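Appendix C reproduces, verbatim, an entry submitted by the partner laboratory led by Prof. M.T., so that reviewers can inspect both the input and the predicted structure.
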Amino acid sequence: MTVPSGVAVDLPLAGEPLEIASVVDQVYDAIRSRIADGSLSRGARIHQEDLAAELGVSRTPVREALRRLAAEGLVQMRTNRGARVADVGNGDMRAPYEARLIVESGAARLAAQRGLVEPQKRMRAAIRAQRRAIPDVQRSFDANREFHIALVQASGNEFLLALVDHLWVARIGAVIYERQAETPERMRLDADEHEQILEAVVAGDARAAESLTRRHVATAMKRSIVD
């Protein structure tokens, strides 16, 4: 079985039946990762036969994985027109930003209350990476996303983390970040705001962490959405 670099598809031991569900899960993870890192670009057509060949599987698990991704909003399935990576237009941004306003600000409050050290280290590392990345938009976006995912991880709530991970992969892409980042100065200001949020979390100031996060996301929303 031929598998591309970075994609792990484990084969069963001799004599063990191959569970189709496990193959679908692995194919789902592989396609989702490619959408997240831009290998499958937004709006691009997904060729099921090519994917199946690259992953060393039949078309059946690829088709099932695409159905799951379509249910999450990452893929669009169209009758007689195949599958495409979901694109993001300006009008599509309001709902996910509204969700982020609620989820991330609430997660910041929990993060300050719980004081989990490892996610705080991850947030700090993301801020350093974001500052080093300026003015590279893609690298800055990667660090920006990492900070926000780590912030929600610091809440200690796996359900909130799953929600935010989906929002960032499905709707908040580098193209949108480029629109809102605008200039190296704006990127530096974003990193400064991240620093303030982290300081509030470390200090255990739940009210400040929530307020600063809400303001930060609301500002990004205003820059990204034009009515």
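The two ends are 50 Å apart (CA to CA). Additional entries are available on request from the coordinating office.
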